[in-house]
Every structure is written in C-alpha cells, then in structure tokens.
Amino acid sequence: MIDARYHVYDSAVLDAPIEEVWQEVRDITKLIPVVFGDNVKEYGYVEGGSAEKVPSRFAFTLVSGETSLEEVVARSETEHTVTYRIHGQIFGIERYTGTYRLRRVTTEPGKTFLEFPREFGVAAGHDPAQVVPAIAALTAREVAAIKAYFAKRRGAG
Fold first, then answer.
1. DSSP character at residue 3
2. Euclidean distance between CA atoms 85 and 130, whole angstroms
3. Exposed (0-12), middle (13-18) or buried (19+): which is 117, by Cβ within 10 Å?
4. Beta pairing class for 6-14 and 112-122
5. Fewer CB near the last or first residue (10 Å), C or N of the chain?
C-alpha cells in the first residue's frame, strides 16, 4: 500500500534583512515561541542537541498537553535553509518534514522572503479531510506570526 503524502505551503515578505531573520530561524528553539506564542509551555534541545549541531533533536510541549519530538536534519548557512522532521506524531500528522527557506528581496533592501513548505502523512485514525486543511491553516498562522514578530521588532527599533 502506498502511503499518501500531503504538501502545504505558505510564504511572506518579512520587514527585516536576511541576516537578522536568519539569526532567529537557524535556531529552531528561538522560533518555537514566535510561532506558538503563549500556547507553548516548554521547549528546548534534548539528547545533547544544540543550534550548532546537525542533526539535533528538540522537543516542545503546548499548554494543551501535546508534545512533539522533532529533529533538525539539515541546515545551510549559505542558502539560509533549515529542515526538520517529526519523530512520532502530533496534530494527526506523521512522517512530517518542514523547511524554512529565506531569500533576499533584491528589489527592496532590508526585506526577506520566507517560504515554508511542509510535507506529511496523516496518522492512522485521522481524517485527511480535516487534518490537511488544519495543517494548512496552522502553517499560515505560523508564517503570519513570524511576519508580525519581525514587523514589531522593526517598529520597536
């Protein structure tokens, strides 16, 4: 049997230079409180992981009780990309991989293009008709939170 794979994607132009954005995005534990806000209870690297080590596992627990163990599996300092995957399942998904990609906006100095593709399978016992739109909406909320975070930082600066 072939396991179905689903893809969702979102993107935004951030009001910050790529160097500033990269310092936050390259370390996934800096990004977790940005994307989940007050909904995250605890988070951090586990099993000796760190922002400087790839692969590196990290975990987070939401206030609702969901816990996720994930792993940064690739990072490129020159391409400004970081890819991570899930171990197990959360939100009805499994075999999940996500990549944050940053690009300079050459027509507008000081801005960065962020794209965030995700690929995943739907866990047994969950309905793809509910899970896939929910993950697409979550992806959009996370990208919007990152955009708002950098807009706020720029406004405060």
1. P
2. 21
3. middle
4. antiparallel
5. N
Read off the tokens for 120: 């995943």
11 token code pair? 């993107």
Residue 144, amino acid: A
**Helix ranges, the chain (H):** 18-25, 28-36, 128-156
Cα distance between residue 150 and residue 19, in whole Å: 12
CB 114 within 8 A of CB 11: yes
pTM for the whole thing? 0.91
d(CA 110, CA 70): 31
What does the block give as tokens for 48?
A: 């000796």
Note the pLDDT tens digit of each residue in 114-142.
999 999 999 999 999 999 999 999 999 99
Vertex 98 angle, CA 21 and 89, to 5°: 130
Residues in the chain: 157
